[in-house]
Design brief:
The chain has about 400 residues and is an alpha+beta fold. The protein contains 13 helices and 17 strands.
Length: about 400
């Protein structure tokens, strides 16, 4: 199944293999023989409470490839043999067995989409529906905002993907009114893997079918989503990969990608993706690293949303900023944040009406202070303890709620 140069570890039934929260994540496991149960103390929305894994399945990849603490506990259900893959051995694994890389990439892609939908539902109280029919309403949004190039793109794609749709004739009328062609011009580079796009160009639109992923060679790309208004989800830079979920899962785009300045892209379609994974293991390794980091960030966002107490969410948001930088949390060690209270409350989604009272509560903590308008934590371990307190409180509240409903 996998090359013999990897270390094989054996555990007896009921042994703990990995423990949630442990910062020992420089390897992941592929099951050779036996079964394991992978679970989380307080599962987030968008995932099952636990999973039973068998030969050929893997766990621990997200923490290993992102370099963050373990986000799950794994226990041996039977006597079990595991292939242990160190982070730096991942390229060798892909060369020896590219099918393993494809399995991980597809699994990650699905998990990320599930998490993104859960975040959209919890944050905006809506469920993301992925349907090319929605391209019409995207066009209407941009037309109302007088962003005509984006409106044109959405209407053209609506006509292309919904040729019998109820708004086809309306889309044609809209394009004629703004003197735009009914069909997008196919440039000479459309079949090429290398693309050069000018500022504020739509690479793809949410809800349209996709068959390419993109690697940014130069410039930046904004990832946006329309939820009543256009929401900026991320700004990507050279080396970043985007659009992989539509390519791997045959589902419409979950967000739009728009150039932020002039951009050069490498476009990879379904036909050449698996070949590239085999021939360029560093591409697969980079993609899995990026997906791991995105899944970890989405997972921590969902964990944060599970804390009902706003002060608890504020503490956890501060901790997330430290964890993102992979800074070791040690006692009596300070950390200077590059932002103040206003930016912090914006990250957490605290309304201005509640901000003043929460500012007072936060600054009553002797380990938190403001200096030149920036937040300083004098002891990262104390911050971590505060977060653990609010997480346990949230878990107890959830269990009480479940008992009440049952």
């Amino acid at each position: 199944m996998v090359s013999t140069q990897f270390k094989v570890e054996s555990y007896i039934e009921k042994s703990f293999i990995t423990v949630e929260g442990k910062r020992d994540s420089n390897n992941f496991y592929i099951i050779k023989n036996g079964k394991a149960k992978v679970m989380k103390e307080n599962p987030v929305a968008g995932e099952d409470p636990f999973s039973i894994l068998g030969p050929g399945d893997f766990f621990g990849v997200i923490s290993c490839m992102s370099g963050h603490a373990r986000i799950e506990t794994a226990v041996a259900l039977t006597n079990i043999s595991l292939i242990s893959v160190e982070r730096e051995q991942f390229g060798i694994l892909i060369q020896k067995n590219p099918a393993v890389a494809m399995k991980i990439i597809r699994f990650f892609s699905k998990k990320l989409r599930d998490f993104d939908q859960a975040i959209t539902h919890l944050t905006f109280k809506t469920t993301a529906e992925e349907d090319p029919e929605h391209l019409w309403s995207i066009g209407e949004y941009y037309l109302k905002k007088r962003i005509l190039n984006h409106a044109t793109y959405a209407y053209q794609r609506y006509i292309q993907h919904c040729p019998t749709g109820p708004n086809r004739d309306n889309a044609i009328q809209r394009l004629k009114a703004i003197k735009a062609p009914l069909k997008a011009a196919e440039g000479p580079q459309s079949a090429s893997m290398n693309r050069t796009l000018s500022d504020n160009t739509m690479v793809f639109c949410e809800n349209e079918p996709g068959n390419e992923l993109f690697i940014i060679q130069g410039g930046r790309v904004k990832i946006t989503k329309i939820v009543e208004e256009e929401v900026l989800l991320a700004v990507l830079k050279p080396g970043d990969i985007f659009g992989e979920m539509a390519l791997l899962e045959n589902r419409p785009r979950s967000a739009s990608a728009i150039t932020f300045g002039d951009v050069t892209l490498l476009a990879i379609n379904k036909a050449n993706f698996e070949n590239m994974v085999q021939q360029q293991p560093q591409l697969a390794s980079r993609l899995i690293q990026l997906l791991s980091e995105r899944i970890w960030t989405a997972y921590r966002q969902l964990e944060n949303l599970m804390i009902k107490d706003p002060l608890g969410r504020i503490y956890d948001t501060l901790l997330i900023q430290i964890e993102k930088q992979k800074i070791k949390i040690q006692p009596k060690t300070p950390h200077n944040f590059e932002f103040g209270l206003k930016e912090l409350f914006h990250m957490v989604g605290i309304t201005p009406e509640k901000a003043e009272a929460l500012s007072v509560q936060l600054l009553e903590d002797k380990h938190i202070r403001l200096e030149d308008g920036k937040i300083i934590c004098s002891d990262m371990e104390e911050l971590d303890k505060s977060v653990q307190f609010y997480r346990k409180k949230a878990t107890m509240e959830k269990k009480r709620e479940e008992r009440k409903n049952n």
